[in-house]
Specification:
- The complex is a heterodimer.
- By secondary structure, chain A is α/β, with parallel strands linked by helices.
- Helices cover 34% and strands 16% of the residues of chain A.
- Chain A has helices spanning 11-15, 17-24, 27-37, 96-100, 119-129, 141-149, 201-219, 225-242, 254-260, 264-278, 296-320, 386-396, and strands spanning 51-57, 81-83, 90-92, 105-112, 158-162, 182-185, 282-287, 327-332, 336-337, 349-350, 354-360, 368-369, 371-372, 379-381, 384-385, 404-407, 410-413.
- In chain A, strand 2 (81-83) and strand 3 form a beta hairpin.
- Chain A is globular.
- The termini of chain A are far apart.
- The relative contact order of chain A is 0.19.
- Chain B has helices at residues 7-20, 34-48, 59-71, 77-85, 91-100, 103-118, 128-140, 145-154, 167-170, 176-188, 192-196, 201-219, 291-298, 305-320, 340-352, 357-366, 400-411, 414-435, 443-469, 484-492, 494-497, 507-512, 517-529, 535-547, 552-564, 567-570; strands spanning 221-225, 231-235, 241-245, 248-255, 258-259, 262-263, 275-277, 286-287, 396-397, 571-572.
- In chain B, 54% of the residues lie in helices and 6% in strands.
- Chain B contains 26 helices and ten strands.
- The longest helix of chain B is centred in the last third of the chain and has 27 residues, at 443-469.
- Chain B is globular.
- In chain B, the strands form five sheets. Chain B has a two-stranded antiparallel ribbon.
- In chain B, a hairpin with a 2-residue loop joins strand 5 (258-259) and strand 6.
- Among the domains of chain B are: 105-298, no CATH class; 400-428 and 452-572, no CATH class.
- Classes of the chains: A alpha/beta, B mainly alpha.
- At the A-B interface, helix 2, helix 7, helix 8 and strand 17 of A face helix 20, helix 24, helix 25 and helix 26 of B.
Chain lengths: 427, 573
């Protein structure tokens, strides 16, 4: 830190060690301040750093119209199945691009869960926490990764790209709001990233520095847990305000913008790629809406028609850049849809069997695990419970799901203790 | 949440140990004022555990804390100055009495009770406005806590005056499982839902029976839609429920209405003669013997000692920052209280005081335990002063409402906020006028409408804080934790950044006009942090302002912000 005698520099404030010596004496204080003084450019991602990309197809994706087609049966619906890049494995014709990256994925066709209260909300929580929601709240998987994998203090550990008008979800439970998803509603930057008019750039630095000095004073002779978390929230805020272009997908090449498509989910997938490249640990993209109680086939034709290409493009890009080696990709949905087709061409909620896919880091890809019978009314091979998948998602990135969070002095296992990972899916 | 235990056994051993050690607490405890009794219990444990307690809080520390705890906001600058400079030896007691008698106490307690009982669920049949009005009125009258809870548990929503009390049932959709869980958690301090998952076979059946016994009281209740469209409660016959243990699937058990271990005798009613109004599609069914009424008479009463324990523990946690049993809804044999004898004493006193909330809070805040400093004593490792020792005042995060009110007081922006509200209202009315230019409202209703619109606009601003700083809907408020959206909000939000720059008579404007550096620093620190600045802080301010002479108003605004956004402001310490 230089000692600037001109009095114009904001460094002046922290240079007076005689006056502020006490405040800066703590090692934590100096560290935090050092970080602050040197604005960080986005770090290169270290080869070993694990990242996670989550796709949530909201409403309940039909397994019949995606990864477990049953053409020419009473339950199969009007669509054909098509071959994929994995010989012998067929997907629905609604996802031709995804079919071309099938060898980078593992398909699980035998997902199941018990019925839980709360319809979509409850079932979704079951999938992303691995615990029945009535026992909760447990942290969603994104906050868990943020807590356990994120080591870059300057970036939020867990960003959720949602359709527009989605408010923040308090999804971190006992891990605390620090790990809650930073929501980019409609793919837009978070709220309140623009400096108010009254503070110009220089004054902005002054106010953060004065604030920090006040905190350092307060935390002397007090329990520091509160102050450290508080300081780090401002460090993150200051970094984010400087890095607003992090969220600006128009800074990606025109060619890429064309490849991903100009519709929302296309832009959101490209934004997800950008965030992962910049080093964000966990990125989740939600695509609405698959809840097709009526007109299931038109619904899926339309939704998957949007989703298929950008999803496959992103898988391809991650693979090409080598990122797939350290990035776990999961595609989840709260439940599947009924084999029975309703009179108005709808399919209802179905928790007895559905499909998910997973790929990238730590995953044995190119295969299909589990099977349903000929017309998809029941699982006939290797049922996989949602709680087991939660364990698998942990193991894939090198985390031990039987290890524990410490909550108010009590140990809470990461994954439901009565479950374990699906070994067949792991390398 | 399923209960995982590690602290349990440590606690258990400690409690057994303590029980054996016969703590030197007054033998004729009944004559001792409760606040002294509290200190005797807490101090005895400190001696026992060889812990050093913090020194008494300074006047400034006490003032800010008790204002936040009893009125939900920080004091104005002048109030702080007067109190700190007052030499009256009884000023703390006088202040506590003054705050307990203030209107702000009523509205603050209404918010605390609302958040505790409804846990920020979205409104359904009763608005938060009506409900908080009812609660505030109850606290203004100092309605005994058992009576308040009896009104809530006995409410049917029909009686106009007590309709808001039915929010507890109606906004939970009269869902039996939600009600059993919440009645257990909130009023008995036991989370029976969790207990259902308990894997100890000896305990499991026992809790099973508790769960189903409580469910009998509400299982017959349903909503009924009145001709005017309002939902109210109706009740059908329910005398017992059957249940099956997961450990003995072939064995079916039965229980009648039961509050934990107390089974209730139901008066005999001849079959076919149970109803005042029989169930039908058009008429609300009413029973001769209402089980909800029975619940409202028996649960919040001396007959159910768990009620007084749970309530005493909740009121204690509200001001002490942590329950004697913690979490608050985990009263059970494997999660023993940190101070068992004290909790018994608190519960007994709450009963003998006839559930007088104001009187009880008075005693808690009068105690030396409450009035300790939050500074860790010199040379003591904070890690060795557990929060449940109450050796040091525990810090609490400000609730969203406390933060909102305190920011408004600190910035002195009441007038600016009024203008923000008026602007928003006039924009709305312009939009309405553009939409439909016909019928101008009559003059008489205008004043009322404006008052209503103002209340709603204000509530909307507070909601903005609740969204960002509040807990998960349907769950108890969590402990303090900082997040990025919160920091961004405090740094850049439109709401707050309108209050800070010099304007009208706000804090920054007053400060800009002050040339004297001592008075400047006093005004700033008293206004925002409710204390006088220390020498180092005065020096820092002077040097900073010297370096920013070019645009003093903006430099002062940055300084004001830095204290508003500090952790010292964000916490109740």
């Amino acid at each position: 830190m230089r000692n600037d005698s001109s009095c114009n520099s904001t460094d002046h404030l922290v240079s007076r060690r005689s006056m502020l010596g006490n405040m800066l004496a703590g090692a934590a204080g100096v560290g935090a301040l050092g970080q602050f003084v040197h604005p960080l450019v986005a770090k290169e991602i270290e080869a070993k750093k694990k990242q996670v990309l989550i796709f949530l197809l909201n409403g309940g994706l039909s397994q019949f119209e995606s990864f477990d087609p049953k053409p020419n049966t009473d339950t199969g619906g009007p669509f054909r199945s098509i071959p994929t890049s994995v010989p012998g494995t067929h997907f629905s014709e609604l996802i031709p691009y995804t079919a071309q990256v099938a060898h980078k994925l593992a398909v699980v066709r035998s997902m199941f869960a018990e019925r839980v209260p709360g319809s979509h909300g409850g079932a979704r929580e079951y999938v992303v926490t691995g615990r029945p929601p009535q026992q909760g709240p447990y942290p969603w998987i994104g906050p868990v990764y943020s807590k356990l994998l994120a080591d870059n203090e300057d970036l939020p550990g867990n960003i959720h790209i949602t359709p527009s008008r989605w408010g923040p979800r308090q999804d971190a439970a006992f891990l605390g709001p620090r790990h809650a998803s930073l929501v980019l509603s409609g793919g837009q930057p978070p709220l309140n990233v623009n400096r108010p008019e009254v503070f110009d750039k220089e004054l902005d630095e002054s106010r953060y520095k004065l604030r920090q000095i006040a905190d350092l004073r307060f935390s002397q002779r007090r329990r520091t847990a509160h102050t450290e978390a508080y300081q780090s929230s401002y460090d993150q805020a200051a970094q984010l305000i400087r890095q607003k272009d992090l969220f600006d997908v128009t800074r990606e090449s025109e060619k890429d913008q064309l490849r991903y498509g100009s519709h929302d989910v296309g832009r959101h997938c490209l934004l997800a790629r950008r965030l992962l490249q910049k080093g964000v640990t966990c990125v989740k993209v939600t695509h609405n809406n698959y809840d097709s109680h009526m007109e299931n086939f038109n619904f899926h034709l339309e939704q998957l028609g949007e989703f298929d290409k950008p999803f496959a493009t992103l898988m391809q890009d991650l693979d090409d850049s080598g990122a797939l080696d350290h990035t776990l990709v999961m595609l989840v949905t709260e439940f599947g849809r009924t084999p029975v087709i309703q009179p108005d061409n709808g399919r209802d909620h179905w928790q007895d069997s559905w499909s998910v896919v997973v790929g990238g880091c730590g995953i044995q890809t190119g295969g299909v695990l589990g099977a349903t019978n000929d017309n998809g009314t029941e699982i006939v091979d290797r049922p996989v419970h949602v709680g087991e998948m939660f364990h698998t998602y942990m193991r894939a990135v090198g985390l031990d799901p039987t290890a524990t969070h410490l909550v108010g002095g009590n140990k809470v296992p990461f994954g439901a203790p009565e479950r374990s990972a699906v070994k067949e899916l792991l390398i | 949440m399923v209960i995982y235990l590690t602290t349990r056994y440590r606690r258990f051993i400690r409690c057994v140990f303590v029980a054996l050690m016969s703590i030197p607490v007054s033998s004729n405890a009944e004559d001792v004022p409760l606040h002294q009794l509290i200190d005797q219990h807490i101090d005895a444990m400190l001696v026992e555990q060889k812990l050093t307690a913090a020194v008494p809080s300074s006047d400034a520390e006490f003032l800010r804390r008790v204002y936040l705890d009893l009125t939900g906001t920080i004091p104005e600058t002048q109030t702080a100055r007067t109190f700190i400079e007052d030499s009256d030896a009884h000023k703390r007691t006088k202040l506590i009495d003054r705050l307990l008698a203030s209107d702000s106490y009523d509205t603050h307690m209404a918010i605390v009770a609302d958040v505790m009982l409804m846990e920020r669920r979205p409104d359904k049949d009763v608005t938060t406005d009506e409900w908080r009005g009812y609660l505030a009125q109850s606290f203004a009258e100092n309605k005994p806590l058992n009576i308040l809870v009896a009104e809530i548990l006995g409410a049917d929503g029909v009686d106009e005056k007590l309709r808001p009390a039915a929010k507890f049932y109606l906004d939970r959709l009269v869902d039996k499982d939600v009600l059993v869980r919440d009645i257990g958690r909130l009023f008995l301090g036991v989370d029976l839902q969790c207990a259902q998952c308990h894997n100890h076979p000896d305990i499991d059946d026992y809790l099973h029976q508790h769960y189903h016994g409580l469910s009998v009281f509400v299982a017959g209740s349903k909503t009924f839609k009145q001709p005017d469209g309002k939902f109210v409660l109706q009740e059908e016959v329910m005398r017992e429920v059957e249940f099956v243990s997961v450990f003995a699937p072939n064995k079916t058990s039965k229980t009648g209405p039961r509050i934990l271990d107390t089974l209730m005798e139901l008066p005999k009613v001849a079959e076919g003669d149970e109803y005042v109004e029989k169930p039908s599609r058009t008429v609300r069914s009413v029973l001769k013997v209402s089980l909800r009424k029975l619940l409202s008479e028996r649960l919040p009463s001396d007959a159910t000692p768990e009620f007084a324990r749970a309530m005493a523990n909740r009121l204690w946690a509200m001001v002490m920052g942590r329950g004697i049993v913690h979490p608050l809804d985990m009263h059970h044999s494997a999660n023993l209280p940190s101070h068992p004898a004290l909790l018994n004493a608190l519960a007994e006193r709450l009963m003998s005081m006839k559930y007088d909330v104001r009187g009880f809070l008075r005693e808690l805040t009068l105690s030396a335990t409450y009035q300790r400093s939050s500074f860790i004593p010199d040379g003591v490792d904070p890690a060795k002063l557990p929060e449940d020792s109450f050796a040091v005042a525990n810090v609490k995060g400000l609730s969203p409402e406390q933060l909102f009110e305190s920011l408004l007081v600190a910035t002195g922006a009441a007038a600016i906020f009024e203008m923000q509200i008026d602007d928003a209202i006039s924009e709305d009315s312009k939009a309405v006028a553009a939409d439909d230019s016909e019928q101008p409202d009559s003059q008489e209703t205008d004043a009322e409408k404006i008052a209503e619109a103002r209340r709603l606009k204000r509530a909307a601003r507070v909601d903005e804080f609740v969204t960002i700083f509040g807990g998960v809907p349907g769950q108890p408020e969590g402990e303090f934790s900082a997040s990025l959206p919160q920091a961004l909000f405090l740094a850049n939000s439109e709401t707050l950044s309108a209050w800070i720059p010099a304007r009208l008579d706000n804090l920054t404007a007053r400060l800009v006009a002050l040339d004297d550096s001592t008075r400047f620093a006093d005004e700033l620190y008293l206004g925002v942090l409710t204390r006088f600045p220390e020498e180092e802080e005065r020096t820092l301010i002077n040097e900073y302002l010297e370096s920013k002479r070019a645009d003093r108003p903006k430099a002062v605004a940055a300084l004001v912000w830095s204290l508003l956004a500090s952790v010292e402001f964000r916490l109740n310490h």
